[in-house]
UniProtKB/TrEMBL annotation:
The modification Phosphohistidine is found at H50. One of its GO terms (cellular component) is cytoplasm. Residues 478-607 form the CheW-like domain. This is Chemotaxis protein CheA. Transmembrane segments: none annotated. Its EC number is 2.7.13.3. Keywords: Kinase, Phosphoprotein, Transferase, Two-component regulatory system. Coiled coil: none annotated. Residues 3-107 form the HPt domain. It catalyses: ATP + protein L-histidine = ADP + protein N-phospho-L-histidine. Residues 235-476 form the Histidine kinase domain.
């Protein structure tokens, strides 16, 4: 039940506006740390927090008002020159903005948020009193034993440092006497908790996105649309209405027997005009779903900054192309993959400042996040100037972890070796930490990108850095496909995977190691017949081959014939989706066309259950 009776609509407006304000404040705080003497920037931050406090006060959100008031006073002292920007001070301010965002989460569920962490309030009060921030806590070592039970002595020493010196020897004896084997040492960020906390104690910083997964976020069900776009939709709707009236008049004339040449010509013109208007209306409606990726990118400078501070690195995240537009639903689904990629760039790609200086680099590393529209796709790139990736080292690591055998590893070229980081369980870290080491991050990234019908590619030069490119369609509502035929049935394959169509002539298919192949421009490519992938019996010899390329492989898809390119709206198959089928659509003659998921289909090649299920589905 809502705790804001009668003010639910005002609460939603407050959350929408304040969330954007807080994101803007976070971004400006990142800029303020670089330009501590920019008073105009400081005034903007002050006004943002003041606006959030005012809205919270109107809704009687006392906990948020108290926190914002203290933070606002801190900004006021910065404006007056009574305090100076420092890393410790910025940590406290960012903890405050993070706490306000947590309170937004409680408000989104129509309940009053809990009070801010007392340690955070104490740190803000200490800052306001002019006391210096406490030094950040040193990482502690958490020891796990073979049965996954914690070492209680080590845990006690980490929590109560005063007892560490006096109990060190007995603790070591206890560990030595215990009949267990230490399985692994896990480094975790932990703040020591003294018996009497000093007044200026700073709360332990929360790791940004710690672990290998981030908590699920609630998707927004609202969207801001430029009124110009809505006016365009309204105007096109009016034009379509006028064209409909014209068609109705022509229909009446034809029913009355007026089938003269002028009438038929007018009918053809009206239908052509309607076709153009419907296409324009479709594009206009799709444009209302498009949002700038800057709304997504603006979260990452703080993520990179917090993680770099946690790891003792110096990193600057530079963003460009924020105005590039992408479908709103795709922006929401793209968040987790990009979080992983930014975190990996900071954690794996960037060296420690001392290591960078030793090889002649600047101590502060540069991570670039860019977006641009290329044709009907959007290209997002994450580039760093770190250590890069060594193909031979990746190959050896994959063999050590048992992910591939030595024979397979030796057959991989440099490009394929870089793709090894996407294997489940692959990690270059020898120790598991709160940030990485479990080998699930990049596997999740590739899976999520493929769900969006996208592709991910890696280029890396050892010692110079790494560039990861993500290519995505602008929208998932309409999918460009190539309609092909096999076994007298039409199927659609994503056009993003299609490179070219070649005729299959007699004798062009040759066997290599017992497998059918075709040579295309001096490259030997394996042949997969669509009928065999579906588990059906071929009704004729394939007449054409579709050169298809995915993130991991290139192959020739042998088909009977092809119909052509089309833009389709995919309808999901609820509760009856067989393996290898992404959805269904209707052709111009009203027949059902199944849209194939090629990656899924290749993994289940020759499965008769797939073929039987497809037969049942088509016959529905």
């Amino acid at each position: 039940m809502s705790e804001f009776g009668g003010m639910d609509e005002l609460l939603q407006d407050f959350l929408m506006e304040s969330s954007e304000l807080l994101s803007d404040v976070d971004n400006k705080l990142m800029d303020l740390e670089k330009r501590p003497h920019d008073h105009a920037l400081l005034n903007d931050i002050f006004r943002g927090f003041h606006t959030i406090k005012g809205g919270a006060g109107f809704l009687n959100v006392t906990a948020m008002v108290n926190l914002c008031h203290r933070t606002e006073n801190l900004f006021d002292k910065l404006r007056n020159g009574e305090l100076q920007i420092s890393s410790g001070l910025m940590d406290v301010i960012l903890d405050a903005t993070g706490s306000v965002r947590d309170m937004f989460g409680a408000l989104s569920q129509a309940r009053q948020p809990a009070d801010a962490d007392p340690a955070l309030i104490a740190a803000l009060d200490a800052m306001l009193a002019g006391e210096p921030p406490a030094a950040p806590a040193q990482p502690a070592v958490q020891v796990l034993v073979a049965d996954d039970t914690p070492d209680w002595n080590a845990l006690y020493q980490a929590v109560v440092p005063q007892a560490a010196a006096s109990s060190a020897a007995p603790a070591q004896q206890a560990v030595a006497a215990a009949p267990v084997v230490i399985a692994e040492v896990v480094t975790a960020q932990a703040a020591p908790v003294p018996v009497e906390a000093p007044k200026a104690a700073k709360p332990a910083p929360k790791p940004s996105g710690g672990g290998n997964s981030s908590p699920p976020s609630t998707q927004e069900n609202t969207i801001r649309i430029d009124t110009v776009r809505l006016d365009m939709v309204l105007n096109l709707s009016g034009e379509i209405g006028l064209t409909k009236n014209r068609l109705t008049t022509l229909r009446t004339e034809i029913l009355q027997g007026n089938t003269g040449q002028n009438t038929l010509r007018s009918l053809d013109e009206a239908i052509g005009q309607l076709d153009l208007l419907v296409g324009d209306l479709q594009n206009a409606v799709m444009s209302t779903r498009m949002q700038p990726v800057g709304r997504l990118f603006q979260k990452y400078p703080r993520l990179a900054r917090d993680l770099a501070r946690q790891l003792g690195k110096e990193v600057e995240l530079v963003i460009s192309g924020e105005e590039t537009e992408l479908d709103k639903t795709m922006i929401e689904d793209l968040n987790d993959p990009l979080v992983h990629l930014v975190r990996n760039a900071v954690d794996h790609g960037i060296e420690q400042p001392a290591d960078r200086i030793a090889v002649g680099k600047k101590p502060q590393a540069l991570v670039q996040l860019t977006a641009e529209q290329v044709g009907d796709h959007i290209l997002i790139e994450i580039t760093d100037d770190g250590r890069g990736m060594n193909a031979d080292a990746l190959r050896r690591k994959a063999i050590e972890k048992g992910l591939i055998d030595a024979e397979t590893a030796n057959s991989l070229d440099e490009k394929q070796c870089l793709q090894l980081i996407f294997l489940p369980g692959f990690s270059t870290k020898d120790q598991i930490s709160s940030v990485s080491g479990r080998g699930v991050g990049m596997d999740v990234v590739r899976t999520n990108i493929q769900k969006l019908n996208g592709r991910i590619d890696i280029n890396s030069i050892p010692g110079e850095g790494t560039r990861i490119s993500v290519s995505l369609p602008l929208t998932l509502a309409i999918l460009p496909v190539l309609v092909v035929r096999a076994c007298n049935q039409a199927f659609a394959v994503p056009l993003a995977m299609v490179r070219e169509i070649i005729p299959i002539e007699s004798g062009s298919i040759q066997e290599v190691s017992g497998r059918p192949t075709i040579v295309v421009r001096d490259e030997i490519l394996p042949v997969r017949t669509l009928s065999s992938l579906l588990g059906w019996e071929a009704t004729q010899k394939p007449g054409f081959g579709v050169l298809m390329q995915s993130a991991e492989r290139s192959f020739i898809l042998a088909i009977d014939s092809f119909v052509g390119r089309d833009d389709v709206v995919i309808k999901p198959l609820q509760n009856i989706r067989p393996k290898g089928v992404a959805g269904a659509t209707l052709s111009g003659d009203g027949s059902v066309v199944l849209v194939l998921d090629m990656e899924d289909l290749l993994n289940g090649e020759g499965n008769s259950l797939i073929g039987n299920r497809l037969h049942e589905l088509i016959s529905l």
